[in-house]
Amino acid sequence: MLSDIEIAQAAKLIPIKDIAAAAGIPENALELYGNYKAKISEEFLLQAQGNKQGKLILVTAINPTPAGEGKTTTTVGLGQAMARIGKKAIIALREPSLGPVFGVKGGAAGGGYAQVLPMEDINLHFTGDMHAITAANNLLCALLDNHMQQGNELKIDQRRILIKRCMDMNDRELRSIIAGLGGRINGIPREDGFIITVASEVMAILCLAADLADLKQRLGNILVAYNVEGKPVFAKDLQAQGAMTALLKDAIKPNLVQTLEGTPAIMHGGPFANIAHGCNSIRATRLALNLADYCITEAGFGSDLGAEKFFDIKCRLGGLTPSAVVIVATVRALKYNGGAAKSDLSKEDTAALQKGIANLGAHIDNMQKFGIPVVVAINRFAADTDAELQIIANYCGERGAEFALSEVFAKGGEGAKELAEKLCKIADREPNFAHIYDVSLPLKERVDAIVTQIYGAGEVVYTSGAEKAIRELGAMTDNMPVCMAKTQYSLSDNPALLGRPKGFAITVKDVRISNGAGFVVVLTGDIMTMPGLPKAPAALKIDVSAGGEIEGLF
């Protein structure tokens, strides 16, 4: 069997100007990065806003397991399948982070015969958006430290600095550091740390900004610290927003690439789905909706994290109305949720499947609470038996959800034609979309709505630290959507609770505000914003041949 990179390197790419033309983007609207990738000009983005609005389809999943689900691969394959059934569709994806690429999780370009190309470029430096976001974030940090060094007119309390430096790489050594050592000339000694770029508020802001002016305003609204009197200090108080915007003026433009079958793909932004909202940019999604009959996009992790935030944060702030949702699952992952050992997942086990399928049921129920019709896509593996697949088909039917197999990894777009046809059918229904909560409710009531209606918890418990944070933030959290930060592996805040736990308590440990992004972050459990590398990182297998070809990249 060929590896992902071997499949990608064997493909014959179409010049990006031809991909653009087929999507309705003229050549003069492209800012080329070689022959096969381009940014789309600001002028064209504004012009396209007057076009018709296509149907918005979200691809989400059950809770992630070591068995894998294949959400991005399914999204890419769906875009290819739409073309095969004569529909005009554009997929809108997040950009990969170098941390997972060189770590263990892999890239974000799909897999098998459902990939976006050029795969090596996309998974590495791409068009430099990640580097620009890193630079903008670190410029803000440098300006803050310099302000304190040069007299500290704002009276910033160095013990209450909220912003951290970032880099787009897994590096646990930098999670907690002491900066400013070496004498007065080297700054003020203080505790500091790094987060990964995709967990930064600057990344979230880029993905939620409507345009350059909105981006600049949001950057200025970042809460960076408190002063010695306990009053908030924002990035605009440091006059940082102008220079930060200058670093991001190209990064805010969506990127155009292609799938393995020559269909268009817009990739832009990549925020984490726990500390942030986990979706590609609003601008990219809107552009796809303006150009195609169907925009197929995805949200990070399972529906309890990614999809809930897509609906309650991205759709709310972007004025978007989804038409359908795809929940990706595998027989293997559902058996794992039912207690089957990872080593036994290739064996037929209907008992474990019938127990673990409750996790899928929770995600179906949750999506239907938003008023969105559901299609369950089973990412098929060779070891899946007919008996196991029939159990899932029957289960979905009992819950009013469509069911289809997805074989895009092995067959490309051909492997998702049935899925695409069912999606088109239900997406044409009149949408009945509604949010889970009203942002005008008190903060705790907004949290309660998510925790009880989406996670299935019995109660929410706030630590004394969380209660203190809520009091200090006060009215700043009013009328903001909530970004819940919790483990992706369970509906609860305990990663060991698989399946569909009920009656558990969610413990809120802290509450923070992403003031520029426009949401309040509620932290549960232990959330890692700077991952570490595994014992055997993927980086150890990556190399470059004598001829300059990248090897070992998945």
Question: Could you explain how this protein is built, in words?
Answer:
By secondary structure, the protein is an alpha/beta fold. It is 35% helix and 20% strand. The protein has 19 helices and 25 strands. Strands 1, 2, 3, 4, 5, 6, 14, 15, 16, 17, 18 and 19 form a twelve-stranded mixed β-sheet that branches. The longest helix has 21 residues, at 129-149. The chain is globular, with a radius of gyration of 23 Å. It starts with a helix and ends with a strand. 52% of the residues are buried.
Count helical runs: 19
- Tally of extended strands? 25
Tell me the helix content.
25-40%
Rg estimate, integer Å: 23 Å
Biggest β-sheet description = 12 strands, mixed
- Low-pLDDT residue intervals, each spanning 5 or more residues: none
Strand content: 15-25%
Principal-axis shape equals: globular
Determine the mean pLDDT: 95
N-end to C-end Cα span: 13 Å
Please state the structural category: alpha/beta
